[in-house]
Amino acid sequence: MKIGILTFHGSHNYGSALQAYALSKQLSEMGHHVQIINLRNQAQKDAYSIFKKRPFSVRNLIFDGFTVMTYCSRKRRFRNFEQFINHILPITTEEYGSGEELRNAKFDFDAYVTGSDQVWNPSCQDFEPAYYLDFVDDSKLRVAYAPSLGKANHYKEDLALIQSLLKNMDSISCREEDGVKVLRQLTDKPVTHVCDPVILLDKKYWEEFAAEPLYKEPYILTYFLNNNHGDRSQVEYLRKMTGCRVIALNEYISDWLNPHVTLRIDVTPQQFVSLIKNATYVLTNSFHATAFSVIFERTFFTAIASQSEVHNNNDSRKIDFLKQFGLESRLMPNGTSPDVSEAIDYTKTRQLLSEFRQSSKNYLTQSLSR
User: Fold this and answer.
1) What whole-number distance in Å separates Cα of residue 144 and Cα of residue 5?
2) CB neighbours of 315 closer than 8 A, spacing ≥ 6?
3) CA distance 152 to 182
4) What is residue 252's predicted lDDT score, i.e. its pLDDT?
5) pLDDT higher at 203 or 225
6) What dihedral angle (degrees, nearest 10) is formed by the CA atoms of 324, 325, 331, 337?
């Protein structure tokens, strides 16, 4: 079967790139001919440009100066992502800039799969209704695999939009339990809870995908995204407690100035996976860094907002994920510190992960057999 995937593959974000890779690889291993539809709208390109378009302010002027100082690293990262997107991912030759262009395109796919990542979150700056496959002819199969709504609470107008767009779908699934609950209130179609695509590929696969180790000595890997919650100050606490060096994938001036931190904003997706695989500790507020920490059975801590704020932000995807595998003790709300004395027993998690992976593959098989 010829399958076209629609996802945030063009984002210069490690999680986005790797989930796109994983879904295309899994569908290919199931015997399908797969291409990722190369939709890259201007909002997405602007978001990941080296120099951002923003209003004049002292704060933005300082950040632009920091961008200049780290330009060479940022340029390498930009090239690394473009290399991965254009030569590793199976994208269509043609690039599309909007959903309207997709409507006018002449595709010959038998089925379309949308997801994963936050493609169903209308609050995302690069959101397009096309991610609900509204451009696809009714004669074609339309499957949602693990799209994320990003958060549990949405504006009424966004929910109304989502409800109208769900009518296009033949099979619906979602990456988070909270998202499943929201979608079930908006449609009478079945909604299945499935894993993120990076979970579809097992530990052995990712070990082979990962680049060679970048560092020999023990290190703390820290990866904090600006649009997520979580207390970064605990990185210094963890460094003092363990004596490990800190490798930071963050774009923060404070990390660049800190003599105890090695700033690496230029790594490839393969090196990103390797850095998590070989880390002594991982401290992050990223969903996908959390997911890979679980895959590689690392000692990790996932930073989130304080308990009183949890249900009003995008932490639900990390909370749902860790609770499902009995790892909620790895959540680190603001105001708490990482407990390095607590070892993680992955025995039960390993089994739960295997079962979830298989049930998610079953959903894909069944949805594409209609």
Assistant:
1) 10
2) 228, 229, 304, 305
3) 7
4) 86
5) 203
6) 160
Q: Is residue 293 part of a domain?
A: yes
Please tell me the distance from the alpha carbon of residue 252 to that of residue 234, in angstroms, as a whole number.
Answer: 15
What are the structure tokens assigned to 49, written together? 């440009």
Peptide bond into 116 cis (omega under 30): yes
CB 263 within 8 A of CB 72: no
The DSSP line for 26-65 is: HHHHTT-EEEEEEE--HHHHHHTSSS------HHHHHHHH
Q: Which CATH number belongs to the domain containing residue 311 in this structure?
A: 3.40.50
CA of residue 160 relative to chain centroid, distance: 25
| Domain span at 327 | 210-339
Angle at 277 between CA 298 and CA 365, to 5 degrees: 95
Question: CA triplet 138, 149, 198: central angle to 5 degrees?
Answer: 90
Shared domain for 218 and 261, answered yes or no, is: yes
Beta-strand ranges (E) seen in 74-190 are 91-96, 111-114, 141-144, 172-174
pLDDT higher than 80, residue 229: no
DSSP-based three-state secondary structure for 284: strand
Are 179 and 43 in a shared domain? yes
- Domain total of the chain: 2
In single-letter form, the type of residue at position 81 comes to F
The one-letter amino acid code at 292 reads: F
Angle at 136 between CA 134 and CA 138, to 5 degrees: 105
Give yes or no: residues 323 and 259 share one domain: yes
Instruction: Say if residue 191 is in the same domain as residue 47.
Output: yes
- Beta carbons of 331 and 302 less than 8 angstroms apart: yes
Tokens of 367: 């949805």
User: Which residue carries 């199969």 as its tokens?
Assistant: 141
**Cα separation of 12 and 24, whole Å?**
18
CB 246 within 8 A of CB 253: no
Dig out the tokens for 50 from the structure.
Answer: 């080296």
CA angle 360-34-18, nearest 5°?
Answer: 60
The string of pLDDT tens digits covering residues 47-86 is: 889 888 778 888 888 888 988 999 999 999 999 999 999 9
Each residue's pLDDT tens digit, 174-220: 999 999 999 999 999 999 999 999 999 999 999 999 999 999 999 99
